[in-house]
Amino acid sequence: MQSHPPISASRRARVLAKLTLALALAAGTGAIAPAAHAAAGYERGPEPTEAILAATRGPFSVADTNVSSLVVSGFGGGTIYYPTDTSQGTFGGVVIAPGYTASKSSMAWLAERLASHGFVVFNIDTITRSDQPDSRGRQILAAADYLTENSSITVRSRLDSSRIGVMGHSMGGGGTLAAANSRPSLQAAVPLTPWHLDKSWGGVRVPTMIIGAENDSIASVSSHSEPFYNSLSGAPEKAYLELNGASHFAPNSDNDTIAKYAISWIKRFVDDDLRYDRFLCPPPNRSTTIEEYRSSCPHS
Questions:
Q1: Whole-prediction pTM
Q2: Of the candidates 156, 158, 214, 211, which has an alpha carbon nearest to the alpha carbon of residue 188?
Q3: How do 119-124 and 188-192 pair as beta strands?
Q4: In the annotation, is 3 catalytic?
Q5: Three-state DSSP class for 291?
Q6: Is 117 designated active site?
Q7: What is the largest CA-CA distance in the chain?
Q8: Which end of the chain is more exposed for a tag (fewer CB within 10 A), N or C?
Q9: Which residue spans within 84-118 are E strands per DSSP?
């Protein structure tokens, strides 16, 4: 079993404070204290089920706002999707980057679907469509900073700026690794059929799920996703999902397997929502959609 670095001091303090409050309330009323995970996390939405994760939309209604490239610096603008609900507190944020030659439209399906599960999601364009992975990583971080500091009051009023995850496809997936390597305060990373010339990511300190594709002829799992996963020696948690029979472009259209596991990973580590552990640990078995799954289970 892999050893795991401790959680950050700030997160530990939040967890202990909430547990202390829960125990105090229980002691004062004679009630049984709630389970630790209920007090420690940022649970948003109903109890998760296979049916909820398989649906093309989650439980939250979503609105969106476009951000012009003319009003931002360091990336190419994009579209922010956010829950319309204001009754459950703030939501974690996620930045998604497209792959080489692609635009934000290639990842819009996943951005909107993720937002409907209770996240503020910034689906970005890159400065040029030929930007390389490290550049895309810097652009992901620039977009995260814009989201937390300069987005509209409507967006920021719904966003918990301390809880940000990152995702990306192909070179955007390589950029996701680069962003996670540069900013360990990120809560989660999900590279999708990632491409990068650097194969060693031992410096990443962010919970990372890599999703590869069995028939990827552009970023083959043997030279990209698998070496990336194997190199994540410093990540507090990691997982590798290989899509059965899928190509490099599987993340560019509706894919229930990608959605289920990416949403579960983001829920688990951006929201600290232990209700999603059961979809990730123990690892799912090989199936018609999953060729292979590896993980650093347990997460809790």
A1: 0.87
A2: 211
A3: unpaired
A4: no
A5: strand
A6: no
A7: 62
A8: N
A9: 91-97
